[in-house]
Amino acid sequence: MRMPSLRRIVLGFGMGLLLAGAACAEPPTPMLWKVSKGESTVWLLGSMHFLKDGDYPLSRDVDVAYKDAGKLVFEISPDELNSPATLALTLQHGMYHDTHKLQDDLSPTTWQELVAYGEKNNLPAVALQKFEPWMASLTLVALESQKMGMKPDAGLDMHFMQMASADHKPTGGLETVDQQLAIFYTSPLKAQQDMLRQSLDEIGDFPKEMNKEHDTWRRGDSDAMIVAAKKEFAKYPELYQKILAQRNRNWIPQIERMLVGNDDTLVIVGALHLAGPDGVVHLLQQKGYTVERICTGCAKIKH
């Protein structure tokens, strides 16, 4: 049975912890909403965590939201993300620390395919042996993305973290590094093995599929994004809840607190977290907040 695509998981997950298509003449129109309560505004911006330098500048709508916001909030705060403790924590949970090795947890076929991939991508077997399966899976996604010219340091999160730092705007986070990593390192071994197996199986189609997702993000097409995600997660409702739905619900009380007072905030999270019936936008609408899609460049897209 196939796991949901790791590309899809990364799109909805803040993988700034780890390391499509030609740039278009028109600037991207990422998913952007304006949430209002009295004099307070929270802007919600959907990120893609691996982008190209050519994806900038963004639409004017996003520039307006950034200039309006007195504070920026990400899935993980920049202070924590850039802390040496983050790398230490990632290595602690993503690597073996005894005589056990990755080869012990994989079938001979999967291990040989992984070794062959490593030889082609300057990733020696001795290094691969130290990765736990989930870490190996995400490493493949990162390497394949970077081969396409898509880089984590060009991702929307990192772009705005750098801008906030330069403009001395305060920042914050919705969750911790360990909370994000736990989604993977607490997964059963079988699930981790399946993730790695599927990552290897999809390498041949990776550029084509990543270009589709990249194009969907550039167009700000939230409907297309959630339809594709729901299809891939259909056989894995528990994973869908763990990676997307439950985290979205956890963030709502924090966003509500941002709407108290007169300060405006820009919240930047993985695009999948904003879309669909379990998305942050719909959850806020259910609570009675005024939520407006801001997208002057995508009038043909259903909001």
Sheet with most strands: strand arrangement: 4-3-5-2-1-6
Ranges where pLDDT stays below 50 over 5 or more residues in a row are 18-25
Major sheet attributes: 6 strands, mixed
Helix content: 40-55%
Rounded to the nearest angstrom, the radius of gyration is: 19 Å
Number of helices: 14
Coarse morphology:
globular
The termini sit apart by: 34 Å
Q: Which H/E pattern describes the elements?
A: HEEHEHHHHHHEHHHHHEHE
Strand content: 5-15%
- Count structural domains: 1
The computed structural class is alpha/beta
Counting DSSP E segments of at least 2 residues, the number of strands comes to 6
How would you describe what is shown here?
With 303 residues, the chain is an alpha/beta fold. The protein has one domain (6-95, 131-293). Helices cover 50% and strands 10% of the residues. The chain is built from 14 helices and 6 strands. It has helices spanning 6-11, 60-68, 78-81, 84-94, 108-120, 125-128, 133-147, 156-166, 177-185, 189-201, 206-219, 222-233, 237-258, 280-286, and strands at 32-37, 40-47, 71-74, 171-173, 265-270, 290-293. A 6-stranded mixed β-sheet has the order 4-3-5-2-1-6, sandwiched between helices. Helix 4 (84-94) packs parallel to helix 9 (177-185) and helix 7 (133-147) runs parallel beside helix 10.
